[in-house]
Amino acid sequence: MTGRERLIATLNHQQPDRTVIDLGGTSQTGINASTLYRFRKALGLPEKPIKITEPGQLLGEVDYDVINAVGADVIGLLNPVNFFGYKNENWKPWQMDDGTPVLMGGGFEYDEDEKGTKYVYPQGDRSAEYSCMIPKGGSFFDSVPREKFDFDLDEEDLTPLEDFKEDFSVVDDETAKYWEQKSYELYNNTDLGVVGMLGGGALGDAAVIPGPAVKHPRGIRRVDDWLMAHAMYPDYIKAVFRYQTDVMLKNLEIYKQAVGERIQVVWISGTDFGNQRGPMISLSTFRELYKPFYKEICDWVHQNTGWKTFFHTCGAIYDFLDDFAEMGLDCLNPLQLSANGMDPVKIKENYGDKFTFWGGGVDTQHVLPFGTPDEVRAQVRERIDILGKGGGYVFNTIHNIVAGVPAENLMAMYDEAKK
């Protein structure tokens, strides 16, 4: 079977000839650029600077030679504009703190203080306040809140649509043309499954609420304030989500016209609803504020295309799974089995016919970075044996492969996954 055939089979809960593997197909199934640079060397591939296509997490572009070397079956149709709001073009050399040579898009503009902390400007515009920062030696950027909200305001005095109009907009013709051309390239020139990284549907995503790509954010932007607003200003939250969903539905229509059925999966949301110990919000709050809008988005996809919907949501989210299924979620990532209550046997038994599990293949907090190759192999085999029965499984680590992972552990992981 080809990679595309494997992906289609497993999405339809049919057993492929081997486990489907993803490396770099999405912004949550990728690899740190420094780790990728060393992994390329271990694979015997030519040394070259790594293009950082997702600068917020310092994720490197996984080239076809790496895809072929590890036996990956999936590739991502990425957006031309990245997390910081500038285009991935006009590449320029940069060096990570550990000396790794990389290439950044021409819009990457930052300042550095005496401690080595770097501050990045949204859309590469130095006239705006910086929106993200990374300490010296850090592995990813954190958003920097630029707005402090006044909770003494009455809800009727708030302006949700005005606050978030810069965050969500209908894509232009140039972007649609890029999607069309890139989808033909990936579909016709490879035999890989294609994930369309459309984005725009991540309701209340803690990574984007502060506005890392927005020059002049307004309204409720601190994550703690945002969570408080669920209780204090629910109509504000609903108004933001209504606006965001309306834009998302328009962009889905444009996306469909641009890529047709040349993708098999569409990335919808990266909002985390759990942490290591439990949910981020109550199930009742999710049902009131989030679920209706997500269902509207998923219904549109299923009624108008043959695509499967992809959601990334970290943490202890077992109690949300029934609702996720009801709203139309097809592919669940990253399946954080290290979080409380996330038992893989129980999840597969109770929800294996409802979701394609995309991830969970090895623990990126402990086993992959600090275990031995044999320990990595053992966990990979255990997870595939549990999650891969009857299809409905794409192998990937729990979230991205982080900085500092030994190359020999990656070699062991992919070798075992292909067996």
From TrEMBL:
What is the organism of origin for this protein? Candidatus Scatomonas pullistercoris
The family database entries (InterPro entries) matched by this protein are listed as: Methanogen_methyltrans, UROD/MetE-like_sf, Uroporphyrinogen_deCOase
Locate the Uroporphyrinogen decarboxylase (URO-D) domain: which residues? Answer: 222-419
Q: Which residues form a coiled coil?
A: none
Q: Which Pfam families match?
A: URO-D (PF01208)
Single GO molecular-function term?
A: methyltransferase activity
Quick one: a GO biological-process term for this protein? methylation
Q: Does the keyword Ribonucleoprotein apply?
A: no
Keyword annotations for this protein, in alphabetical order, are: Methyltransferase, Transferase
Protein name per the record? Methyltransferase
